[in-house]
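Assemble and predict.
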Amino acid sequence: MTSFNSLSRRGFLSGAAALGGTALLPLPARAGTEIGLTAAPARAQLLAPPRPDTPVWGYDGALPGPELRFRQGDRLRLRARNGLDAPTSIHWHGLRVPNAMDGVAHLTQPPIAPGGDFLYEFDLPDAGTYWYHPHMGGAEQLGRGLAGALIVEEEAPIRVDRELVWMLQDWRLEQGGEIVPGFDGRHDAMHGGRIGNHVTLNGQPAPRIEIAPNERLRLRIVNAATARIFALDFGPLAPVVVALDGQPVAPHTPEDGAVLIGPGMRTDIVLDATGGAGAAVPVRDLFRPDGAYDVATLAHGDTPLRADAPDWDMALAPNPLPEPDLDAASRHEVVFHGGMMGQMMMGADAPEMIEQMRQGRMWFVNGRAADGHDGPPLIAAERGSTQIISLANRTGWWHPIHLHGHVFRVISRDGRPTAHREWRDTVLMAPKERVEIAFRADNPGDWMLHCHVLAHQAAGMAALIRVADAA
Ligand code: C2O
Ligand code: CU
């Protein structure tokens, strides 16, 4: 009743019926009805046939996991079952849930043991594009495939002909199709994380997606890779960004033309199929200019859906987020150090940092490498207060920094106010960049702040923010 597994999604992408004017969406889960989700070993055809399939870990045997769909204001009730040999948990990335439902193993709940289960239950106050994944240890569980989309539909969605969810994943595969083991390797951890050698969209390499000329699509793009950043280029088509990390933003064309999405992040775009009858438009990842490749092909059919692209309104209604009070804010400086730059470890000159490096910790948050479960909080915030955090990236690498339990505004970059003051739960910092974020700390509990390059997180790029009532 929830979902749409990846098989039916594939059928949906290529099905002729999908070209009609109405969006064929899975039925939203009934509010309050308990649904189940099982993490277990599975097999997936990640390489193009006749190459071999790949042993993966999946939810309900699907890759990506089933798309969970709800309506704004619904209550999610989901029993997670563990069919793996390893303990696991589920984190609801971007959703403002009560702390005990946040799914961070060892912090907000004990791990779900093999054969065990855990009931997640919470309200969904915000519409948008979210996702779920294990929050257990390092990069292995996502690197083996465990991830799925969670969509919360607006009460009054914007008008489009069709909506597609694109789950991007990145794999490091052997010739024979198996996943290369070693998920938190030292070399990956000190550099850009575990970048793979095979990218899939909804479990398929560079799928061909049929669209009708002048059809209007809403794409909900989720970067579920453990390290890879995408800069998606749509060639002659003109994507308009309408939401970031699920949160509506003033519709705008992306800076530099490409849609930049770091691990953990989501972008909703409106895309009109203006390529012309018969046009095959590749969607390319240009993040590494020396290694551009196709993520998908948008194959325009011969029969236009209408004479011109539609001019329907694209602005989404905002979610009920608490506006930060910038005049009465506490300010914090959070400095990230570590990683390699040429032969040098960046900024790790203090003796405590050198000692931590000996123990395999490669990244530092205000001088400390942590797993985000132990030790004192980086920031203690009084419930209801506004926090402004200046995130300073003193490393040579990109980092998508994710805060749990809250959504923040990105207010400046390198001292310049941002054009859209966008709401986000994950913000991508370029090398050496300084980014200021602001949020109302209204959700009590201990929340993680960490890099979503998971090998960085596992090597120390994590901290805790504690939100509590005044003593
Ligand atoms: Cu998407 Cu702390 O994670
Ligand atoms: Cu990082």
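Helices lie at 6-14, 140-143, 186-190, 351-358, 454-458.
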